[in-house]
Amino acid sequence: MRFSTDSAMTFARTATRCLALCAALLFSVPLLAGIGDSDLDGDVDAVDFAALESCLDGPVATSPGCELFDLSNNGTVDMRDFASFQQNFHGDGPIPGTLNVTWIHGSPSCSSDPNPPIQVHQYNDNTFILRQNKCLHYEAPFIYVLFGDEKVFIQDTGATSSSSAFPIQATIQDIIDTYEVDHGLAPLDVIVTHSHSHGDHVAGDGQFSGEPNTTVVGLSSFAVRNFFGFTSWPDEVVTYDLGGRVLDVMGIPGHQAASVAVYDRQTDILLTGDTLYPGRLYINDWDEYQDSTQRMVDFTIGLNIEHVLGTHIEMSSTPGDDYPIGTVYQPDEHVLQLGIEHLIELNDAVQAMGASPSFEVHDDFIIFRL
Ligand SMILES: [Ca+2]
Ligand SMILES: [Ca+2]
Ligand SMILES: [Zn+2]
Predict the structure, then answer these.
(1) Separation of CA 281 and ligand 3 centre (Å)
(2) What range defines the domain where residue 17 resides?
């Protein structure tokens, strides 16, 4: 093609426009990068979160292309940056969090286990998930810590009472101290609750008793009802406000008399304790359990459920395969998170059994009624 005067003019015009555009981009990028709008569409939403999550690699150096999420400008994309991102998040749906984590899962030789007694995973700015080391106790329960503006809600205290072997209070207090400083908050009320009252979820309670600003909810079903203000247990759903973060709490007896489910409206996470998790679901009171799974399903109708999170992992990543009871090493375990489809699958199975419950293996959980 001949290079005409016309095309030269067009080129010049395009170049001028490009210069203006590029200048605009150059000046706007630092501003946009400051709020985590990765696709430059003017909002900070789930799309930007997905991009951020793939960049979350602190404390190593920021990967190429991830620089715009290094909001703190320290060369790494970490949970501090996530906290700033969360402040700017205005997408539809729940405040996101990451479950991109490898849980500590015991050791083939616990005498030389290199892992800490407690793993702390930060799901998002104000949500933490802790796991006890299997080498301390094979139950290796999960513990949840949810922050509001006034209260921090702790669900469960682990399977070991010794504060030297298993410093659960000190570990959570560190998280709280850091959170209060980072957010400029006065000391928060610390509320220690339980998914249910079995020993492997309450053993650390004593470490919290008598600590400042701390309430440890009692273990009986009566104490739990009283604390949350249930007047019609277990049919009622009550709310519990952490300060700008409302939880829905419902009684789900069956695995144990004081079992509760907790729905966090901010993250759309449903906590189900030992009533549903990727493992062996032990059922003490069959009628109550049937009612409880049905009420949970009814409760979730019309709600978004981001994750269903229980308090153990006992399945391997192979469908229908569980680790032996009491194992201290699960090298290839199932992920912690289940979805609403698992709750529905469980309820369907439980209702189908009618009055004659039985042992039934599903891909992601086992109905363990002998
Ligand atoms: Ca965006
Ligand atoms: Ca950073
Ligand atoms: Zn239990």
Answers:
(1) 9
(2) 5-88
